[in-house]
Design a protein that fits this description.
The structure is a homodimer.
Chain A (H helix, E strand, L loop, with lengths): L5 E2 L9 E3 L22 H4 L5 H8 L4 E3 L2 H7 L7 E3 L1 H7 L4 E6 L10 H13 L4 E6 L3 H13 L2 E7 H6 L1 H9 L3 E5 L5 H9 L7 H13 L6 E3 L6 H7 L1 H12 L7 E5 L4 H15 L5 E7 L4 H4 L2 E5 L8 E5 L22 H8 L6 E3 L1 H15 L5 H20 L4 E6 L8 H7 L10 H9 L8
């Protein structure tokens, strides 16, 4: 019989509830603030999100039931396999045992479908007809387009201009699912027009695209459109925890009790939260686990940004969120990991850092693509540019284990495949990629705008 | 608990042997013929293939052991899931139960990796250092590039020009795996130069690319290069039977004994053989199963071609194979299902048709893309253009079941995803696709060249 390389779960073993980290954090979460500087009420969010998701956003319940119909839709691709990376271990000559959770087997190619299906379902249930959203690399836009097709909602996606131009197939994929996809900033919204007036050739950013998508939702005169966000918010983190909850049971099938290190790439925080929150729970309750979010050195929110109240978008349409941030006007260098080009960070992930439960790391894209190429050639799967950050982090840990002679268990999230994002690989292979590191001067410039904001 | 949508297999349930249809065919297979019109000997094939694969090619053993190391490598993505297409059934309001075998979860995105891993392994074992091959849509070239990276062989891929130009990401993917990929016809071979001299703007064809790849292998002065083919040959069909062997056990887990209809798209024959041969075995032994290969109406080898001895390639480098053929000079219209643009057909599949064990069907690409879009929107996975042919066939059968009011079990092979082949979807959605049907005149022209060949 072949070595045990991957495990699934029986249908009966599938998680039936999502895990909410909020009630377990040692320091209670700070609330989001409205324009008046006071905590936002559920009613204030009602034009943007359906009330059932607002309730989840503000919930302090530890376990939240996954609706039967959502479980049914998730079961097309869940559980995703947990895979032992034997060949990577061998290539690195490490005594560590490396496992990766392969979220790329989702039909959308990434973990994003976990929350897309849930959000589309709750919106439909609430009587909404149409969703708007933004997308960076296109993973989220593809996932929400697919979920809307499955559930029967219209969908409009504002895609960051630089990615829209670099990845024409992403738009075609969304069109195939029946969704509309336009480049952001666009002329369709005031937020977009304002940006284009000042910087007509801007590559765009997630912050701008979010502004446009929110505006498009709240200005629909029928009142039947809502906005959907693929990361950052508490209910998004919640929906992703199914990843880590599955992993916990799958590790036992490999005969492992607990990982020593948990690694994921981090942009807005959702795939990191998905795999790590169930293990942060264990850490809070005494387990010794090193939990590492890896971000690009060109967008170093967790490693260099301060913890402040800031808007989630560029046009300041969102409430103020308590989070690590580079400032809402920050437009990152056009590195290829579009999904990691975000100025802010999930408030839940930010709170975990404040409570010293996680140890962030910033890695340059050159080291990341190097890791992605090695992984492709020894394990066979080409990772998304975002995912290469997690792999680079895992490789660093595996080498450390080799130097220390330690039999560590390293777990990372293989958040998505790169089959629709090959341009960056071409640039790497032909020596055209450059290092991007943010200067202090640049950082100060954007943060200065936040001087008069309420402080957390 | 959610409805049972998909099943895998336990590691202990995995097939340990491939199934060889040859010994079970009612009419014995005809041998391939050499330039002298006599059956080719194993030695004559030795410059092209390693002897261990030549033995498999000529084997009349019913069951052939899968080497332990090959099973280990396959276990990264096998077993692939068998999925019940509940949403498609509902959309079609059919009483039929539709199941699809999802080969798209392979890291190469299609079933091609099943034989790529096996062939690379046998070549490596035989001491070969380098493989050459051709690719149409790019699925096979990607799969062999990946397998060579995993096993440690060099790889050179001749990619049909029309696909090379339409699908730039495919080349990047092969490069990422460390393989070389060039457009065919190329200036690197005599076969390529001869074609370019006459038709410099030809879109290319699988037949031409095969000629180039064989030439590149047999002319290597070191003798350490061999050629690898992704379809047509007996040993390729053999390696793919793991698909149908898994399905047999998986259907039982769904509570189904036997399908009523088995459907797959067919170009050279490999994914069709993979899912259907184990069921053809059942049919030979009395089961009532309708087994349907679906081909494009622009390349109607099984439905309109005669059964003749013909070369597998355009430059007539291969032995004469007993098969249904449109003539080795036939260059199909540039439809997007590049993997189905082949003039010939697997001799084993051809023999099964001669024995009336299968019922081929030709469908136009417009109906196929329509089926692909419907499938994408209700089941969530975007099929490869090739795979849409199988879906279109399954939809026809499901509608027939509705009209007849019959509770049929329809099984089809979801051979690959279309994430790297979105251009055709764009053309379909923007109304730019046209119907392609082969004229009788065209057919006669190419077949005339075969007049003086030995007859089967």
């Amino acid at each position: 019989m072949a070595r045990l390389k991957k495990v699934y779960l029986e249908p009966s073993e599938m998680p039936k509830q999502w895990y909410n980290l909020a009630p377990d954090l040692p320091t209670p979460m700070l609330p989001p603030l409205g324009p008046d500087g006071k905590p936002v009420s559920p009613e204030m969010l009602a034009p943007v999100f359906p009330m059932n998701l607002i309730e989840q956003e503000m919930s302090t319940q530890r376990w939240i039931d996954i609706p039967e119909e959502v479980l049914d839709m998730l079961s097309v691709y869940r559980p995703t396999p947990l895979v032992r990376a034997f060949e990577l271990e061998e290539a690195l000559k490490t005594p560590a045992r490396i496992y990766y959770k392969n979220e790329s087997v989702s039909p959308a190619g990434s973990h994003k479908l976990n929350t897309a299906i849930a959000q589309a379902w709750y919106n439909k249930k609430f009587g909404i007809k149409r969703l708007t959203t933004e997308t960076g690399a296109g993973q989220w836009g593809s996932a929400l387009s697919m979920a809307c097709a499955l559930i029967g909602l219209e969908c409009k996606v504002f895609m960051v201009r630089i990615s829209f131009d670099q990845k024409p197939f992403r738009k075609l994929l969304m069109n195939t699912y029946g969704a509309e996809c336009i480049a952001s900033p666009s002329n369709e919204t005031k937020a977009g027009r304002d940006i284009l007036a000042v910087t007509p050739h801007t590559p765009g950013s997630l912050g701008i695209a979010i502004s446009e998508a929110i505006e498009a939702a709240v200005t629909d005169p029928t009142g039947q459109t809502r906005y959907s966000l693929g990361s950052v918010l508490n209910h998004v983190m919640l929906h992703q925890t199914i990843i880590g909850l599955e992993v916990k049971k799958q590790l036992l099938k490999f005969g492992e009790k607990m990982p020593d290190v948990v690694i994921a790439c981090v942009g807005g925080g959702s795939n990191f939260a998905g795999i790590s929150f169930p293990f942060i729970y264990e850490k809070i309750h005494g387990a010794k686990i090193d939990i590492i979010p890896v971000e690009p050195s060109s967008c170093p929110t967790l490693t260099r940004g301060p913890f402040l109240y800031d808007h989630g978008d560029t046009a300041k349409m969102t409430p103020l969120l308590p989070m690590f941030t580079l400032g809402h006007s920050f437009i990152p260098e056009p590195i290829h990991a579009g999904g990691l080009r975000y100025h802010g960070m999930s408030p839940l992930v930010s709170a975990a850092l404040n409570d010293k439960l996680i140890n962030p790391l910033a890695i340059d894209q050159i080291e990341c693509y190097e890791a992605g190429i090695l992984f492709s050639r020894v394990e066979g799967i080409v990772p998304a540019p975002e995912t290469t950050h997690a792999i680079a982090g895992a490789i660093r840990e595996a080498k450390k284990a080799r130097e220390e002679g330690k039999e560590k268990v390293i777990l990372f999230n293989f958040s998505g495949h790169g089959l629709m994002d090959m341009v960056g690989y071409d640039k790497y292979l032909t020596g055209k990629l450059v290092k991007h590191e943010m200067s202090d001067k640049e950082l100060f410039k954007y943060l200065k705008e936040l001087e008069d904001y309420p402080k957390p």
